[in-house]
Amino acid sequence: MKKSVPNQTLVAVTGASGAVYGLRLTAELLRAGQTVTLLTSAAGRIVLAEETGLDWSGSPERQLRCMRQYFAAGEELRHYAEDDLRAPVASGSSAPTAMVIAPCSMGTAGRIAAGISGNLIERAADVMLKEGRPLLLVPRETPLSTIHLENLLRLARAGARILPAMPAFYQRPATVAELVDFVVGKVLDGLGVEHDLFTRWGDGHGN
Predict the structure, then answer these.
(1) Cβ contacts of residue 161 below 8 Å, gap of 6+?
(2) Hey, where are the domains in the chain?
(3) HSE (CB half, 13 Å, CA atoms) of 16?
(4) What DSSP designation does 72 have?
(5) Residue 127 pLDDT greater than 50, yes or no
(6) Which is nearest to 169 in space by CA: 156, 183, 159?
(7) Where are the alpha helices (DSSP H) in the chain?
(8) How much is the pTM?
(9) Could you read off the pLDDT of 17-39 as tens digits, one per residue?
(10) According to the model, what pLDDT value does residue 171 have?
């Protein structure tokens, strides 16, 4: 039976290594016909530039132009400034169907776990928790301290789904892109979005 597909997903890229996860996820969601709101933190944009060479600095309008050019997207891709707490996604009355923070820095996780809404990403995550809507976090940090683990546990208990950036190797990946696709595929599984980004266990493996 075909899984239902959320029609509006918020993707947030924060200041942990692994900006490519957010980029790849956004591309796949757009390919699946979804409306995507893409948010980036200031630290996330710094890491994005370091890891991918993409310069999404400047005004929110410039950032949106850069994003739509990169993804070859139109009105189905939205963006708001990090401090725009008047954006629709900041309110439970117009919250997205689901939200993914990929990658999720430990600072972002800690502030969400503490109920701090210092920017739009943190406020949107708080909205998802209070409204009981899907919130998936893709932490990318190692090693994890006791504080990190306690914050992630607190978020899991509050209703978030913790999906660490831990690729599998049973499919014998030959490229970095295949490692990325495995993690993004697991996120899409969590959202109920069909994909073919990796070979599932048992489909020619482990026999």
Answers:
(1) 134, 135, 136, 137, 190
(2) 8-168+178-191
(3) 22
(4) T
(5) yes
(6) 183
(7) 19-31, 42-52, 60-71, 106-113, 120-131, 146-158, 176-191
(8) 0.93
(9) 999 999 999 999 999 999 999 99
(10) 86
Give the CA diameter of the chain.
Answer: 54
Distance CA 167, CA 6 (A): 24
Q: What are the percentages of helix, strand and coil residues in the chain, rounded to 5?
A: 45, 15, 45
Q: What's residue 207's pLDDT?
A: 36
User: What is the distance between the alpha carbons of residues 54 and 32, in angstroms, rounded to a whole number?
Assistant: 24
Residues 89, 56: contact at Cβ < 8 Å? Answer: no
139 DSSP assignment: E
Q: How far apart are CA 25 and CA 7, in angstroms?
A: 15
- Ordered DSSP codes for 3-25: PP--SEEEEEE-SSS-HHHHHHH
Please write the tens of the pLDDT for every residue from 66-105. Answer: 999 999 999 999 999 999 999 999 999 989 999 999 999 9
Q: Which numeric CATH code is attached to 8-168+178-191?
A: 3.40.50.1950
